[in-house]
Amino acid sequence: MDKKKIPLNAYLTVICILLAALYSFSFFFKPTVDKRKSVKTALLNPRYKNEISQIQIHDSSSQLFLQKNKDVWEIVDFENPFVKLPADSKRINKMIDDFSQVIGAVQVSVKVDKSDSLTSQNFGFDDSAVEIDFFAGGESAGEIVFGKNDFTQTRRYIKTHSSNLAYEIEDFASIYLTTSIQSWSESGLISQQVLGNIKADDIQRIIADGRTFTNSDSLYKEYVSKLLELRHGGINLNEQFNTENSVYKIKLELGNKNNIDIFVYKTSKEGNYLVQLNYLNFKTNELSVYYESISEWTFSRLKYKKN
After folding, report:
1. Sheet harboring 167-170: ordered strands across?
2. Over 90: is that where the pLDDT of 298 sits?
3. pLDDT of residue 31
4. Could you give phi then psi for residue 51, rounded to 5 degrees?
5. What are phi and psi of 38, to 5 degrees?
6. Are 44 and 134 spatial neighbours (Cβ–Cβ below 8 Å)?
7. Residue 151 · residue 157 · CB < 8 Å
8. Which of 108, 176, 243, 244 is the most exposed place for a label (fewest CB within 10 A)?
9. Alpha-carbon distance 100 to 141, whole Å?
């Protein structure tokens, strides 16, 4: 039996109905367009990039001061002279460089008023915020308040005090949002910045406990190599110490006539020690004094083992 053929007009009618339906539904399923204001900006004005001499990082409970002394960045506390140690200059210079790059930012609020606690909490501009202030020549070069991450955890809310507008940026700054001294300090016990890079061969003579040692001593080379690998633990502000009587001292004499004097003091916590390091630059006669905390384990390796 012959199959009935469906007229061409019927096909065309069905197609027209489907196209009309799709056209109608398109009004209900329009793609969402982000109409928020986008800008290109740098968190730190690039013209200040090479002039930054001080940085303050602070949150609701702590703060950290970074100060540039010639080419060396230092961690300092203007109220506590024992808080002074070489900072990680590479890390700080990388932060300044990152903040000077032009990035995309999206404005997410018209204004964030301190009196509006709900808005502040929504963006993380409350007690959980971290602020970084930059200074050049003693003058403010900019300040950025970092709020919380958005729901994707890949973007972060920021604002400045001058505008109080909230923006959203790609979160590249999380690694810098800490006031931990240990996070920002140069990790090595013996600085590779203050007197320049120091290699084992640069240390020509050691005076420890009144005895002098040179590379003719069988333990000398091994000791010097391990000495340059030792790490410190930042500075512990909760411990008491007396710098009048040291429990150990050692002097390192370098081939270029620079000297490093190391004094070790006991602290109020058993097994912890405070180390004072005096770096003397022979050419300039400049003395740089720093303080660092070490453990019993590090102290035992700092001692020169006699034959």
Report:
1. 38-41, 103-107, 167-170, 155-159, 139-149, 130-136, 52-58, 63-69, 72-76, 84-86
2. yes
3. 43
4. -115, -5
5. -105, 140
6. yes
7. no
8. 244
9. 12
Identify the CA nearest to 101 among candidates 159, 173, 157.
173
Backbone angles phi, psi at 298, to 5 degrees: -65, -40
Given pLDDT bands bounded at 50, 70 and 90, which one contains residue 209? confident
Query: How do beta strands 103-107 and 72-76 pair?
Result: unpaired
Does residue 9 surpass a pLDDT of 80? no
* Pair type for strands 139-149 and 155-159: antiparallel
Residue 292 and residue 232 in contact, taking contact as beta carbons nearer than 8 Å:
yes
- Measured in Å, how far apart are the chain's first and last C-alpha atoms? 114
Instruction: Let me know: does 55 contact 153? Beta carbons within 8 Å.
Output: no
Residues β-bridged to residue 73: 68
- Determine the pLDDT at residue 165: 86
